[in-house]
Every structure is written in C-alpha cells, then in structure tokens.
Write a structure and sequence with these properties.
The protein has 195 residues and is mainly α. Helices cover 78% and strands 0% of the residues. It has 2 domains: 86 residues, RNA polymerase sigma factor, region 2, helix turn helix motif (Rna Polymerase Sigma Factor, Chain: A); 97 residues, Winged helix-like DNA-binding domain superfamily/Winged helix DNA-binding domain (Arc Repressor Mutant, subunit A, Orthogonal Bundle), CATH 1.10.10.
Amino acid sequence: MNKTDLSSATEEQLLLQRLREGDMGSYETLFHRYYPTFFAFAKGMLKDAGAAEDIIQNVFMKIWIHREALDETMSIKNYIYVLSKREVFNYLRAKYNTHVVLTEDMMTLERPSSIDEPTTDYRELREAVQSVINTMPPKRRSVFCLSRFKSLTNQEIADKLGISIRTVEKHIELALRTFKEQLGSFFALFVGWFL
C-alpha cells in the first residue's frame, strides 16, 4: 500500500468514525463521493433511473439510520456495493412476484393474428393461465413470466434472479408440467399462443 492509498484509507476511517458519532458533514461527504457510482450501477441493472434513484437513496438512508453499527475498519465502498446489490435484487424480486405486474402482463398480451378461434376462447384461456400462474411458487412464477411475457433468455433470467441456468430450465419445465396438468382442454390453445 503506497502513501496515497494509506492516506485515503485513513481519511475514510476518520469519516466513518465521525459518521458513527452522528456528524452530518461526514455523511454528506460519503454521499457525494459514492452516490454517482452506485446510482449508475443500479440504473445499469434496472434500466430505470427513477427506481435506481429511490434504491440508492434508500441505501444511504439505511447507512445513516444504522451508522452506530458501522465498523471503522471496513471498506465503506464495498459495504455500499453489497447493500445496493441486495436492494436491486429485492426490487426485482418484488416487481416480478406481484400479482399486479402479472395481471398487467397478461392483459397486454395480444392474440396472434394467425389464430382464428373466437376471442372468447382466448379470454377464457387467459383467465385459466392466470389462475395456474397464481398457484405457482414465487420463484417459478417469476421465471415463467420473465421467460414467456418478458421474452428474456434463460441466461438473462438467471442473471436477474441470481440463480443458475439449470435452475431456470427446471422451473420452466415444472411450470409447463403444471399447465399441462391443470389446463385440460385449454392446453392445446396454450401451446399455440404462449409457447
């Protein structure tokens, strides 16, 4: 560690020490130093500047609230990174596990023009599919909806949810088996419209 690294590490320890004691100036210094980096990180993950801003502001709010528990010897940058990553994944998990988002996704699906069955069949199918999706475990529901309604690849889903590609494939396989068991006569339509 050279002299510059040593002095910046010492400065950060002093900032953390003062922050622990409730010094607002130290908090503002850390905020202005690290906010742009982690806002860019969250925005890159979410592709949504508003959500990224909310998440990183929430991270810094948590740092202030729990300032007395901070360890002066830790790397504050690494700590903010861990908090930010956790908040981003929690946000994504919540977004894709909510009934509202799933319902909106179902409602915006258009019936393929090449299919000539009556609209009533599609409406009933959509309701039946929604009913099956609602009974799925949260992770399987997320994987299936990201795959079929958001058109994400298995790799993108794995990255988004922090799971392996094999786990993604298994969830899709189990979801399709559930549809086959529960949709009955609607399954042929389901295959034509959703797969």
